[in-house]
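May I ask for an example protein's residues together with how it folds?

___
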Amino acid sequence: MSRSKTFLHLAFILTLSGPCQSTWAANWSLDQLMSALAHGGNGMATFTERKYLAVVDIPVDSSGELRFIAPDRLEKRTLKPSVETMVLDGNTLTIERRNQKHVLQLQDYPGIAGMIGSIRATLAGDRKGLEQVYQLKLNGSAEHWSLLLKPRDASVGRVVKQIQIEGRQDEVRSVEIEQGDGDRSVMTIRKAGSS
């Protein structure tokens, strides 16, 4: 898997959030969504992911666990079909697979760093920071919302064409990423302890 794809797959785990104890208004707005996600704090979830790659005819499925530790530690542990761990701590990404460990610095990848930083801004409830890199479009209500992120910057756009995040209230339920090279991935997220 290329470094850009590794970063891209890491990007959607940044949307993992925990519960918020607020009351949901009838008119669901982008500010309300950002606030709900920002109050999430730490969170754990399981995921299933399906990748549609141009180089293979059949989709590639994987599953595992996600963990977010506020303010900026993200972990993705793939358990099937093979074990792989990705940890983003601050601006350092550590990838472990097949008894090999790779450590990468985000500042060496400005396009990817901008994308990951923007998704991180979602967790922080930083709408202004998010809109510096993405055009945002929110549809739906608190009970079923959809947030479309389209990159403003060409360097980010070369890696990711768009990200579609869907959820309910303060829970992210799915993330679909369309990459610049035509590949696509869909991740379904289930918070730990939810039914």
Summary: Residues 3-191 form a domain with the outer membrane lipoprotein receptor (LolB), chain A fold (CATH 2.50.20.10). The two ends are 33 Å apart (CA to CA). The helical segments are 3-11, 30-38, 110-124, 127-131, 154-157.
